[in-house]
Write a structure and sequence with these properties.
The chain is mainly alpha-helical and 320 residues long. Helix content is 49%, strand content 1%. The protein has a domain of 179 residues: Up-down Bundle (Vanadium-containing Chloroperoxidase, domain 1), CATH 1.20.144. The protein has a two-stranded antiparallel ribbon with strand order 1-2.
Length: 320
């Protein structure tokens, strides 16, 4: 191996990238007990773990005080990761056109299926860098720390399995992180507006806010988010309460008689079946209710006329 390697690199000798790759490859040869785990983790497991961390971050963001923005940040961490991988795989790899190390360095240990695609930058490392930067940007500190460990282990695994040079991994981590951070401001602004649209105008608000659309308080489910009445300008409904109590027949000390039905004044929308405006009829039909200004009170029944109508004018005596 040493002779063939010397012949391969005889023109310029081994670069730092080559030496680091061979050092890790030598370590892989002497640790066969790790081969099964590193095969799985460097190919599927690491990416799957990072995706799981993003899923947990989305779920937790739904309970944030500002869920629309919190979810938008996590969505950009996921969406930016996909876009960064597309840029690395279809844009930068053909542009740089660096061969895989096992196509240049003979007799190296390769634990995964050999491909003839280009090496720089590592697609797995690009994904790892984007997820790490996205979770730190979203301020999911614990998940971001876990993603950092998982992402660095994934990058090491790509070298351990013989698929990439160390600089391929370092470049991928930096490219993925830079892509997510540079485009974060406009992307998060667009995603936050989209999240508000989901919450306010679709039945899919639960994807952004825990519990779905913000519930209204009150008899019709109403209070706005600011805590005010959801129906501005709605007319009040006057119940059958008396000045001495909450409602019902008057009792001792101005209270209500026990067992009497109670009805309190509420604010409801005019379309509600129980809505009625404040009017002369409403006030006059309320026993014991105070009279409003400009509205005459009921007159007792008697010879002058029925209750609620003004008494007839007395007849004048004939002076003759």
């Amino acid at each position: 191996m040493t002779r063939e390697l010397a012949l391969t690199r005889s023109a310029g000798g081994l670069s730092l990238n080559d030496r680091w790759y061979l050092d890790v490859n030598r370590f892989a040869r002497h640790t066969p007990s790790l081969h099964a785990f590193m095969r799985f983790y460097a190919h599927f497991g690491g990416v799957g773990l990072l995706a799981l961390l993003l899923l947990v971050a989305w779920w937790v963001a739904r309970f944030d005080r500002r869920p629309e923005r919190a979810v938008a940040l996590v969505l950009w961490a996921a969406g930016g990761t996909v876009l960064a991988w597309i840029l690395a795989h279809y844009g930068l790899k053909p542009l740089v056109a660096e061969k895989r190390p096992y196509l240049v360095l003979p007799h190296v240990e390769v634990l995964l299926h050999r491909t003839h695609g280009y090496a720089f930058p590592s697609g797995h490392a690009t994904v790892a860098g984007a997820v790490i930067a996205g979770l730190w940007l979203a301020r999911r500190w614990i998940l971001a720390a876990l993603a950092t460990v998982a992402g660095l282990l994934l990058g090491f695994g790509r070298v351990y399995t013989g698929m990439h040079y160390p600089f391929d991994v370092v470049g991928g981590l930096l490219i993925g992180a830079a892509f997510v951070l540079v485009l974060a401001w406009p992307a998060v602004a667009v995603l936050e507006a989209f999240d508000r649209l989901l919450v306010e105008h679709t039945p899919f608000g639960w994807l952004v806010r825990a519990g779905g659309r913000a519930r209204r308080s009150g008899p019709l489910g109403g209070g706005s988010r600011s805590g005010g009445s959801p129906w501005r300008g709605a007319a009040p409904m006057v119940g059958t309460g008396t000045p001495g109590g909450a409602g019902g027949a008057p009792g001792p000390a101005g209270g209500s008689a026990p067992g009497a039905p109670t009805r309190t004044a509420q604010t409801v929308h005019p379309s509600h079946p129980e809505w009625q405006p404040v009017s002369e009829r409403t006030v006059l039909s309320t026993p014991g209710a105070p009279r409003l200004a400009g509205i005459p009170g009921p007159s007792p029944a008697g010879p002058e006329g029925p209750p609620g109508q003004p008494a007839a004018a007395p007849e004048r005596a004939d002076p003759s």
